[in-house]
Write a structure and sequence with these properties.
The chain is built from twelve helices and 15 strands. It is an alpha/beta fold and about 400 residues long. It has two domains: about 130 residues, Aspartate Aminotransferase, domain 1 (Alpha-Beta Complex); about 240 residues, 3-Layer(aba) Sandwich (Aspartate Aminotransferase, domain 2), CATH 3.40.640. The chain is globular, with a radius of gyration of 21 Å. The N and C termini lie far apart (about 50 Å).
């Protein structure tokens, strides 16, 4: 082992689980990222829907600095007033009665799955363990989370599949009816708007029907709003677009911390009845530093200015993107998603298209079903959206030329 730090560090000591783009950034401001090479990029990835207020938002920076000079971590052995304050805000603005704080969306999913099974045990029905998810879903990378999603590339090679996890076809109501009728079913878990699965959105009618079916069967409904929640669809939570679709349990993260690691599992008091002292925990979850940033991010996002901006600019995006689809039918197949979770289904390989967009100094995310996703900061301006459209148009022209060549 070398005793000195190399002047030009490489990735040789980083576990090779990421296929990283050949880019590194040294700072960000709003929707702009500044690379170590001196280039400026328009960021429509936002840390994969995490930097909800863009980079270096002054409110979040001030919250971090102020709390950082007071107290970082004490553990959940003690009361954490900042945690109680953020929990109060979340419950006052959602269906929930109680919150468990985590460091990530994956941890929130783990808590949700355990909460659902523990609920039925508390009701004297420990046999109700079956969790039904959907194809194309993504719930995180921990062991239970990958089994809940069932993506073969994430579960193969890690030993036997966990029992009690089955995937249905996204949007197949008849399959859902059969699943909830099963006497061993504990819960259904779904993203109201899929992220990695290709930005597929459940309709409001589908969400309402799913809620009715699970309620009648005594099955808990879990929403994964890690990506589509916290303002990304133009409402604070995506389920709010439907008239009667509030879940029993919901997971959020990403924009909740505005880029700082914060996650949360929200639940009704009834759904959380089995989560008693000692059955779950976290060392870092809900620490004062994370909670201070989380409170600042929540208060800034949960405003008419931010939520209305998402609706208005997303409408502009949809209109302009459909215009690109009409002009480039050999490149773009479909525009989908909701709010600022926008999917562009392509004919050319989506990974190659991401490179073409990057050549235009535009950052977009990948997605399933050969989509690229636009996940810009919630405070993106119309002018910045127009710039993104212009860059996407050039990427489309390059994609067309590449095929012609």
């Amino acid at each position: 082992m070398s005793s000195s730090t190399p002047s030009n560090p490489s990735q040789q000591h980083i576990m090779g689980v990421y296929n990283r783009a050949p880019l590194a950034f040294e700072k960000g401001r709003g929707a702009r990222l500044f690379s170590t090479d001196g280039d400026v990029y328009l960021d429509c990835v936002a840390g994969i829907a995490t930097d909800g207020l863009g980079h270096a938002h002054p409110v979040l920076v001030e919250a971090l600095k102020t709390q950082g000079e007071k107290l970082w971590h004490v553990s959940n052995i003690y009361r954490i007033p900042e945690q109680e304050e953020l929990a109060d805000k979340l419950c006052a603005n959602s269906f929930a009665d109680v919150v468990f704080f985590t460091n990530s969306g994956t941890e929130a999913i783990e808590c949700a799955l355990k909460t659902a099974r523990k609920y039925h045990t508390a009701n004297g029905q420990p046999e109700r363990i079956e969790i039904f998810g959907f194809d194309g879903s993504f719930h995180g990378r921990s062991y239970a989370a990958v089994n809940a999603s069932g993506n073969p590339s994430y579960v193969e090679g890690f030993g036997p599949r966990l029992p009690g996890y089955t995937q249905l076809t996204f949007g197949d109501i008849e399959a859902i009816k059969a699943a909830v009728a099963n006497p061993t079913t504990a819960a259904v878990i779904i993203e109201p708007v899929q992220g990695e699965g290709g930005a597929r959105a459940m309709t409001e009618a589908q969400l309402n029907e799913l809620r009715q079916l699970t309620r009648e069967a005594g099955v808990l409904l879990i929403y994964d709003e890690v990506q589509c929640g916290m303002g990304r669809t133009g409402k604070l939570f995506a389920y709010e677009w439907a008239s009667d679709a509030a879940p029993d349990i919901m997971c959020i993260a990403k924009a909740l911390g505005g880029g700082f690691p914060v996650g949360a599992c929200l639940a009704t008091a009834e759904a959380a009845k089995g989560m008693t002292v000692g059955v779950h925990g976290s060392t870092f979850g809900g620490n004062p530093l994370a909670m201070a940033v989380g409170k600042a991010a929540f208060d800034t996002i949960n405003t008419p200015e931010i939520l209305d901006n998402v609706k208005q600019v997303a409408g502009y995006f949809t209109q302009q993107l459909n215009g690109l689809k009409d002009r480039f039918p050999d490149v773009i197949v479909d525009i989908r998603g909701k709010g600022f979770l926008i999917g562009i289904k392509l004919i050319p390989n989506n990974r190659e298209f991401m490179v073409l967009a990057r050549d235009e100094k535009l950052l977009v995310a990948g997605g399933g079903d050969n989509c690229v996703r636009l996940l810009p900061p919630l405070n993106l301006t119309v002018e910045e959206a127009s710039e993104a459209i212009a860059k996407l148009e050039k990427a489309c022209e390059a994609a067309r030329a590449k095929v012609a060549a």
